[in-house]
Amino acid sequence: MSHGETVSPTEIELLPVPAGTDATLVAELTDLVNRVYAAAEEGLWQDGAARTTEEGMSELIRAGEIAVARVNGRIVGSVRVQRLKTGEGEFGQLATEPEHRGAGIGRRLVEFAEQWSRDRGLTTMQLELLVPRGWKHPSKEFLNDWYTRIGYQIVRIGAIEESYPDLAPLLATSCDFRIYHKDLSPPPDQPSGFVAAT
Fold it and tell me: Which phi and psi (to 5°) does residue 124 adopt?
């Protein structure tokens, strides 16, 4: 940051459905997710395996499931948010540009996803974390600690072969999914929609 430059606020929005046909935007987001996950999941995937594709990203945008964080109009992070058939909200594909790490953008994206779920009457938020089976991955241990600090608890361990059989052959090492939940219900003494008197 140059001398005299002010820190710009982060703006987060759910992308409009028509944005799914914007090839430049789709390519930018696909590249962001794949770059971030290539570093964060180094050693878990075979060479050449990508976390997402432009076709897949376009589908998620058109489904109304991709939110982005912008600083000065530039995309610096993204997250997928959805309502599961089992009734939970879920976020995934959380990605932040490396040069903006530590600025709270990831946390803001998670908070956006949680509020998106609350606005739809959902009381539980879910996330899945891919972890190697039998050894510790530094990035995954960092994320486990971070998610736990912001209120997420492991509720079960899932085998990738069962949940995502098409992805299993792309792995370079055996992996599981840790499934985390966070209670989004308001505290008992603070009903939903409560506004404190000032």
Answer: -130, 135
